[in-house]
Structure formats: structure tokens, C-alpha cells
Amino acid sequence: MMLLRSYRLLLLLSMVLGVAGCSLLPQAPLYQLDGGTLKAPSARTGVVLLLGPLTLAQYLQREVILQRQTDGSLTETDAHWAGSLQEDIDHLLQRQLASRLHTPYVLSTASSGLPADAQLLVTISRLDSGPQQPAVLHAQWRLLDKNGQLREQRLLQLEQTHSDSLASQVQAQSRLLQQLAEQLAVDVSEFSRQSAGNASGTRPVPPLPRKSVPTPKPPTTPATGAAEVYRF
Fold first, then answer.
1. What confidence score (pLDDT) does residue 39 get?
2. DSSP H helical ranges for 68-165
């Protein structure tokens, strides 16, 4: 009987110590993209835009945050994304496009309801940074009309400097995605104005200025906001 009581006491003590040890372990930091300061659309009408499918490079489809090294390799950190990075990017682009296009109707491919006036298919083949590497975004998109016909197709390359900390890198990546949304909004705006005469039930989107892109030169250090846009 004494042996049984001693065994139970040891078992209880080990459980208590195990729980206490787990509570003392350092928690992995979690990060989430910054969607920026947005103005909610006040109008109840506008272009109906379907965003997606959104495709991410396979190396981005993980919870752990990767760091780009000077030799081009990628290494894991102790930090994680707070949820699905793909869903986070999808929501960021939706909110940015709705604000920039002044329309409440930016839907994901998983949404059902209104028939879309246009559809954006977006592929992000690179989104990363490192302690000594700028944040870099490589993206491609196709703009389809309501009949599924290709109306525009582009490639985009962006760089953004940061202050080396992981929090600063996540902010830099967020700014790159906001710049991507800006370019997407320009294409949708132009398409909406061109097809306004034939489309029914939509409100033409005001024209958005397209930023001029200088001829890229080999930089010695990455320039903040340096962009390359290719139309094909």
C-alpha cells in the first residue's frame, strides 16, 4: 500500500513539473501582414471583381518564416506566421482593392453570389527578405473579363529596404503587397473605364495614375520601392 501511494505521489509530482516546464518554455513569436490604412468604400455600387485563384510559391506555403541569406539560400527562423500566409495575403489584397477601386464587391474565388465583371488571377513566385537582404516580391497576374477572355497580363518585381529586424522585414513585405494591390487596381480601373459603355449595372471606376517605371540599372544597394513592371 505504501509503495502504491509513493508511486501515485511520484506520478502526480512529475505531471505538475511537466506542466510547469511547458509554461516556462519560450513561445515562438507570431507575425501578421499589415494591411495598411484603408478607407472603406462608401458606395453601394461598383465593379464586381473576383480575386483569385491566388497562387503562392511552394516555399511560402508553411507556417515558419524563412530568411533569405546573402548566398541566396533560405533558412528557417523561430518565428511563425499567425495563421495561413495565403489567406492573409488574399484578405490584404481584397481590402486594398476594395478601398482603391471604391467598390464593396471584391470577392474571393471561394465566395458565391454576384456574377463578376472581371477576374484577377494572381501568382506570387517570391516574397521574402533577410537580415542583409531587402524584401523582394515577384508577382504575375492575368485580368479576365466576365466572359473569361484575357484582357491584360503583367509581371511585377519590387524591392523594399528595411532595418534588419524581423518585424521590420514583415512590414517591408506588407508594403510590397500594398504596392502590388496598387498596380492591380490600376489595371482594373483602366479595364472598367474601357468596358463601361458595354457593361450594365456597374459604375465606372475613376482612373488611377500609373507610376512611371524607370529603366532599371544595376544598383550597388537596393533602392526603396524600386519596381519593374513587364507587360506581355
1. 81
2. 85-101
